[in-house]
Amino acid sequence: MEDCLFCRIVAGRIPARKVFEDEEILAFHDINPARPVHLLVIPKRHITSLATVGDTDTVVLGRMLAVANRLATEQGSPDGFRVIINTGRIGHQEVQHLHAHIVGGPEPVGPMLKRI
Ligand code: 5GP
Ligand code: ZN
Question: 16, 32, 39, 93: most buried, per Cβ within 10 A?
């Protein structure tokens, strides 16, 4: 996917502060962190969003969560963390390549949603 930002990061064409990589997953620091710990965990293979996953994606999805757990501990949020997967227009997904935000740090992250 030539025009996909996160595919370009996977390909090494855009730099990122990587914290983990294996054959199917990449994790790196969010460029605009919302909390002291703010990582993005992505599948290397292009999957547009959680709205497009199917049964063939369940292994990589599970691995993303297992990696998230380990990285949160390693990267400064050992006492819990939050995983956010913004999905589609309603979920306000800005980058159209599936990614899990891992947010945390030394203090609780606060209410999940603002009430409308
Ligand atoms: P979304 O709103 O799609 O769930 O979140 C996209 C995230 O990607 C945002 O938190 C944004 O800061 C992050 N982001 C956008 N462009 C880049 C980039 O070039 N590098 C990194 N590391 N993060 C990015
Ligand atoms: Zn992509």
Answer: 39
